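Per your request, structure below.
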């Protein structure tokens, strides 16, 4: 897999050298400037993959400012296209950095501008523009889902998926968009999502098994299988073992490839899902998989995966009667990330995001209160509405009629959280 920290240092040194070698903005021709912008976007994408989101965001903001300045003199379609790509990358970085509300707001602004240009007949029909729009709407749908607005996420995601599905011949990028839409569709119709993912998997077979597209399809298909297996067990309609076995085989391959290739964000997702398989079976291996997910998500700085991994590990330890100090350690880590994601909202308890995370957050508080950790009471002081989630004033058990979501896999007094 290689040393990810060393890769970050090497990339940082290369960036410093690149900055020193660039010609002055006003001396660059449009083609030179576009080449510089393309290099910068590629570098920022690499920074994102390496987990250096703060640095990537700063560089994208600087690139956006340079584009605006250059476009005051020359406003060409290729420059606008580059600006849209820059903004799409910013959306992706914000939503993976626990700022889905800001990400969704930026994506909505850019999407509205695109719609306005289309209605005025000013949107080029070239394939590069079509690919950019698919990527933007796909990213917008994910940001909305993370912010908790699932209905709007499905609407935007369906539009992106329809555009992507019409791509011929199919590309890995287009299939990845359809796969992501199916992931969001699990919230509404997991069986339909599974069918769509199987169709996408069949179309993806000509592409490398180690590529990101097929790995992402495997992760999303496994998620749909886990959700359905868990529901079958919950209502006594079967043990879901066939679905869990298929998910296990998919996830073992995905995890091994992700670790070998150094794709720690994918490895973290696979480890969370493997932990859920074992949690469903109650065979005791779930804690080790959730611990693997914590490590991979921490290294790749995937905050949305990280809080889920921490909370699932705390839940697994608590369910098994583990040391309350260890339970509280991971509950505190999850709580801190979740509270940070609510910070952009002036009234967080009325936000879609709060509705999405209130049950996991209540579990984190429950574990902290049980351990006597003051962080639990501090969270309740900041979010009084969270008190309604508890059975009594002891705040050590949640109400049995607490909210239900496809992301919360219930097991009696506990809820595990999907990736």
């Amino acid at each position: 897999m290689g040393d990810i920290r060393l890769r970050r240092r090497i990339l940082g040194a290369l960036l410093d050298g690149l900055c020193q070698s660039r010609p002055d903005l006003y001396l660059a021709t449009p083609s030179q400037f576009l080449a510089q912008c393309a290099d910068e976007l590629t570098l920022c994408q690499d920074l994102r993959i390496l987990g250096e989101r703060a640095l990537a965001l700063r560089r994208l903001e600087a690139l956006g400012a340079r584009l605006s300045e250059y476009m005051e003199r020359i406003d060409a379609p290729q420059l606008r296209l580059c600006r849209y790509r820059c903004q799409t990358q910013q959306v992706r970085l914000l939503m993976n950095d626990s700022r889905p509300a800001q990400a969704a707001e930026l994506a909505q602004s850019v999407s509205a501008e695109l719609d306005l240009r289309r209605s005025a007949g000013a949107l080029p029909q070239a394939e590069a523009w079509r690919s950019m729009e698919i990527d933007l709407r796909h990213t917008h749908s994910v940001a909305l889902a993370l912010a908790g607005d699932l209905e709007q996420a499905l609407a935007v995601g369906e539009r992106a998926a329809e555009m992507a599905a019409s791509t011929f011949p199919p590309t890995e990028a287009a299939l990845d968009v359809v796969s992501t839409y199916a992931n969001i569709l699990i919230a509404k119709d997991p069986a339909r999502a599974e069918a769509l993912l199987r169709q996408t998997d069949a179309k993806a077979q000509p592409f490398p098994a180690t590529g990101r597209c097929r790995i992402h399809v495997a992760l999303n298909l496994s998620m749909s299988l886990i959700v359905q297996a868990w529901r079958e067990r919950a209502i006594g309609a079967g043990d879901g073992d066939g679905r869990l076995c298929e998910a296990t085989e998919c996830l073992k391959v995905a995890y091994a490839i992700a670790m070998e290739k150094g794709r720690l964000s994918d490895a973290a997702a696979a480890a969370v899902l493997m932990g859920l398989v074992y949690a469903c079976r109650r065979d005791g291996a779930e804690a080790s998989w959730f611990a693997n997910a914590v490590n991979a998500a921490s290294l790749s700085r995937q905050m949305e995966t990280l809080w889920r991994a921490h909370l699932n590990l705390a839940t697994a330890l608590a369910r098994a009667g583990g040391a309350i100090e260890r339970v509280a350690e991971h509950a505190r880590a999850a709580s801190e990330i979740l509270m940070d994601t609510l910070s952009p909202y002036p009234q967080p308890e009325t936000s879609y995001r709060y509705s999405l995370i209130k049950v996991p957050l209540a579990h984190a508080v429950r574990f902290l209160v049980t351990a006597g950790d003051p962080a639990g009471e501090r969270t309740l002081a900041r979010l009084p509405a969270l008190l309604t989630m508890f059975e009594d004033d002891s705040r050590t058990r949640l109400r049995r009629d607490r909210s239900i979501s496809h992301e919360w896999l219930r097991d009696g007094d506990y809820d595990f959280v999907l990736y």
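Residues 102 and 132 are 20 Å apart (CA to CA).

Regards,
D.
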